[in-house]
């Protein structure tokens, strides 16, 4: 098999194939990554809180943006970790460590954004419910 045939083998043939690969990637990250399951559970709790507190459309937009960013960054972090492990043959490399640490740092940054966003949306509502 020449390299041109090999390229075609892995190339997405159509939109449906591309979509199937992407969905498989999402399910793989949920199945194999502990932190992704935690993020998914947190997202579910946040959305249920949004329904309970009847948040506004603007608040929903920020809540969904936060959830989407955290999940997307966690998927990218996991992908980067897998590629770095593959490329480094599981041997220690300072460059590999730096790449993995930076990817994890990106998840931390967007998680901080999500925490602040959730606090701005839900703390006043919870406060009014408890002390109002």
TrEMBL record:
Free-text remark on how the cofactor is bound: Mn(2+), Zn(2+), Cd(2+) and Co(2+) support activity to lesser extents.
Domain of life (superkingdom): Bacteria
Presence of keyword Kinase: yes
Cellular component terms per the entry's GO annotation: plasma membrane
Residues that bind substrate: 74
Membrane disposition: Multi-pass membrane protein
Binding site for a divalent metal cation: 33, 81
Molecular functions per Gene Ontology: ATP binding; ATP-dependent diacylglycerol kinase activity; metal ion binding
InterPro entries assigned to the protein according to its UniProt record, in alphabetical order: DAGK, DAGK_sf, UDPK
UniProt keyword Nucleotide-binding, yes or no: yes
CDD domains linked: UDPK_IM_like
Binding site for ATP: 33, 81, 100-101
Main subcellular location: membrane
UniProt cross-references to Pfam families, sorted A to Z: DAGK_prokar
Cofactor(s) required, per the database record: Mg(2+)
GO process terms (BP): phospholipid biosynthetic process
Ranges annotated as spanning the membrane: 39-55, 61-80, 101-123
Coiled coil: none
Protein location: Cell membrane
Keywords: ATP-binding, Cell membrane, Kinase, Lipid biosynthesis, Lipid metabolism, Magnesium, Membrane, Metal-binding, Nucleotide-binding, Phospholipid biosynthesis, Phospholipid metabolism, Transferase, Transmembrane, Transmembrane helix
Active-site residues, as the UniProt record annotates them: 74
EC number(s) given by UniProt: 2.7.1.107
Stated family: Belongs to the bacterial diacylglycerol kinase family.
The protein's name: Prokaryotic diacylglycerol kinase
Species of the source: Streptococcus australis ATCC 700641
């Amino acid at each position: 098999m020449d390299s041109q045939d090999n390229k075609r083998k892995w190339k997405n043939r159509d939109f449906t194939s591309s979509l199937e690969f992407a969905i498989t990637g999402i399910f793989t990250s949920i199945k194999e990554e502990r932190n992704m399951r935690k993020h998914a559970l947190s997202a579910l709790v946040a959305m249920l809180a949004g329904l309970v507190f009847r948040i506004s459309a603007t608040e929903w937009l920020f809540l969904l943006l936060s959830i989407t960013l955290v999940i997307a960054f966690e998927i990218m972090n996991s992908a980067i970790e897998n590629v770095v492990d593959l490329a480094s043959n599981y041997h220690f490399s300072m460059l590999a460590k730096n790449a993995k640490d930076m990817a994890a740092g990106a998840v931390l940054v967007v998680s901080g954004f999500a925490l602040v966003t959730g606090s701005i949306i839900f703390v006043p509502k919870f406060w009014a419910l408890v002390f109002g």
